[in-house]
Design brief:
This protein has about 400 residues and is mainly beta. It has one helix and 14 strands; from the N terminus they run αββββββββββββββ. The chain has one helix at about 80-90; strands at about 160-170, 180-190, 200-215, 220, 225, 230-245, 250-260, 275-290, 295-310, 315-325, 330-345, 350-365, 370-380, 390-405. It has a twelve-stranded antiparallel beta barrel with strand order 1-2-3-6-7-8-9-10-11-12-13-14. The protein has a two-stranded antiparallel sheet with strand order 4-5. Strand 4 (about 220) and strand 5 (about 225) form a beta hairpin. It starts with about 80 loop residues before the first helix and ends with a strand.
């Protein structure tokens, strides 16, 4: 889920204005959004097919009974020749399928004599071997059928996310002269996280977002020209995610972000001028704690070193996000989100301390569709006197996830 959906519009956006725009015209950007997805599901194996135990596998009579009337077992004291004469002396009728069954005891130096007895009769006292007991020979009435249990179903590793968010702020550009406006963000995300170990995953994602402002989508500048703050965003992300403990996990990776101007609203997609680029190295730690069956506390920390174009946007960020969540039901959750970000600019003398406190309600329409409503305020301090973070904000969003493979 989005770490901070409302932080898509940064107070530094005004500094990213294209050179041909007026110095007083506010310009947009987006910095503090991160996506964290968790998919956990477990399915039971289907039961093995049963085997009917009352059917014969040979073409014998229906009751599948066997008789030893045609089997002659000679005494151990008689030689093999005498046993054969006894068997030939009595009249016999060969079995149509098995023929004549003749068993001659062959003494074994270790096991002794093997004696065949009817399965229904109990052996006489003292007739069993002291080590092996009584060996009973019975023809199998059911063939052995190898049963192959299906493998545990593998969880999907690739997802396609479709989302639409609306965000409104009383100070959308974090300026000392506040501007009240809202923006609509529509985006598509391809997320792929194949396992590379029992607790390690390769995290990759690709985002394409269209950001369109309300009043500032089309406005007239001081010199009379029509200007627009709409822009398009492309973001790539790659990293290694490892579950350190059942509650603690970490990730190290790289991300790239590009912003393009879009002066014609929905008539122009990713064909405008690139006015911002960023390559970042990041290290993340996240922890999940269950305080009660319904109450949970999630903590997230990120260190990010940003190399931006233009250079004066390069910075080092330390972000901490905590979420106290309460599950009202299986579909309805409520949460309080707090975010703190310290931004140290490496190419200019500027440090920002930003705070954001939100109340959020999440409702799962379906297992794949989620709706979010949030409201709160932001505050903080910057060494640049032109920056003011104080403002009220609210918004809503809907996310649809589609498992691919």
């Amino acid at each position: 889920m989005e770490r901070s959906a409302v932080s898509s519009v940064s107070h530094q956006a005004k500094d990213l204005a294209p050179s041909e725009q007026s110095a007083t015209a506010p310009v947009q950007t987006a910095f503090r959004s991160e996506v964290v997805l968790n998919h956990t599901s477990q399915k039971a194996l289907p039961e093995s097919p049963g085997i009917v135990a009352n059917r014969c596998w040979r073409s014998l009579s229906a009751n599948c009974t066997y008789t030893t009337s045609r089997i002659r077992i000679g005494a151990t004291s008689q030689p093999p020749a005498q046993v054969e004469e006894v068997a030939q002396a009595e009249p016999r009728s060969p079995d149509a399928e098995l023929g004549d069954l003749r068993i001659t005891p062959v003494p074994d130096p270790e096991l002794g004599d093997l004696k065949v007895q009817p399965i229904a009769a109990d052996p006489p006292v003292g007739a069993s071997d002291p080590e092996l007991g009584t060996l009973r020979i019975q023809e199998r009435t059911i063939p052995e059928i190898p049963i192959a249990l299906p493998n545990r179903p593998r969880l999907p590793s690739a997802y396609l996310l479709l989302r639409t968010d609306y965000f409104n702020s009383s100070n959308v550009f974090s300026d000392v002269e506040p501007i009240n406006d809202g923006l609509l963000r529509t985006g598509l995300t391809f997320f792929y996280a194949p396992p590379i170990g029992s607790k390690t995953f390769l995290i990759t994602s690709f985002d394409a977002n269209l950001i369109r402002y309300g009043r500032l989508g089309q406005y007239r500048s001081i010199n009379g020209s029509i200007e627009s703050l709409n822009y398009d965003e492309l973001r790539l992300r790659a990293g290694i995610f490892h579950r350190i403990t059942p509650r603690l996990s970490g990730e190290i990776g790289w991300s790239n972000q590009k912003l393009f101007t879009s002066a014609r609203g929905l008539q122009q997609f990713f064909s405008g001028r690139e006015f911002f680029g960023d390559n970042s190295l990041r290290v993340e730690l996240s922890r999940q704690d269950t305080l009660s069956p319904r109450l949970s506390l999630n903590t997230y920390y990120q260190f990010r070193w940003s190399f931006a174009n233009p250079d004066d946007r390069s910075r080092i960020l330390n972000s901490l996000i905590t979420t106290l969540g309460y599950s009202v039901s299986q579909k309805l959750q409520m949460a309080i989100d707090y975010q703190f970000t310290w931004s140290h600019f490496t190419q200019q003398a500027r440090d920002d301390l930003y705070h954001q406190l939100l109340g959020r309600v999440t409702y799962n329409l379906t297992p794949r569709t989620q709706v979010n409503l949030f409201s709160g305020f932001s505050f903080g301090h910057s060494s640049d006197r032109r920056i003011d973070f104080n403002g009220f904000l609210f918004g809503a969003g809907i996310v649809f996830s589609l498992p691919l493979f």
